[in-house]
Amino acid sequence: MDGGGSTPCISPWCGEKWELLNCDETDCNGNGVCTNGSCKCKAGWYGSLCEKSCPHNRYGPGCEYSCYCNDNGVCHHVTGSCI
């Protein structure tokens, strides 16, 4: 996807609706791996470029797990451990 021909690109995005990533031009912020035009985020991260850590009380792959910490503790976005 070099932007030549019919696929427009503005780094790192390509496609008619900017829906595809040019994997040669992104490292998914070091929080994932780019394959087939999209970032697959590591546990604890989300976003189209893996740029966001899981929100409060969420953790793990796709931020799918919930966690609750006593005494106003905060869940670690990757492990769910209270920190």
From TrEMBL:
| Entry-linked PROSITE patterns | EGF_1 (PS00022), EGF_3 (PS50026)
Q: Keyword set for this entry?
A: Disulfide bond, EGF-like domain
Q: Which domain of life is it from?
A: Eukaryota
Q: Which InterPro entries does the entry mention? A: EGF, MEGF10/SREC1/2-like
Molecular function terms from GO: scavenger receptor activity
Q: Which Pfam families match?
A: EGF_Teneurin
Query: Which cysteine pairs make disulfide bonds?
Result: 41-50
Q: Tell me the ranges covered by the EGF-like domain, including all copies.
A: 19-51
The name on file for this protein is EGF-like domain-containing protein
**Source organism of this protein record:** Amphimedon queenslandica (Sponge)
User: Taxonomic classification, please?
Assistant: Eukaryota, Metazoa, Porifera, Demospongiae, Heteroscleromorpha
